[in-house]
Amino acid sequence: MRLPHPLYGLYERRLASSLSPDQVPRHVGVILDGNRRWAKSYGESAATGHRRGAGKILELLTWSEEVGVEVVTLWMLSTDNLSRSEDELRELLSIIEDAVVDLAASGRWHLQVMGSLELLPEPFVARLDEAVARTSAVKGLHVNIAVGYGGRHEIADAVRSLLREQAEAGSSLEELAGVFDVEHIADHLYTKGQPDPELVIRTSGEQRLSGFLLWQSAHSEFYFCEAYWPDFRRVDYLRALRAYAARERRLGR
Question: C or N: which end of the chain has fewer Cβ atoms within 10 Å?
Answer without folding.
Answer: N
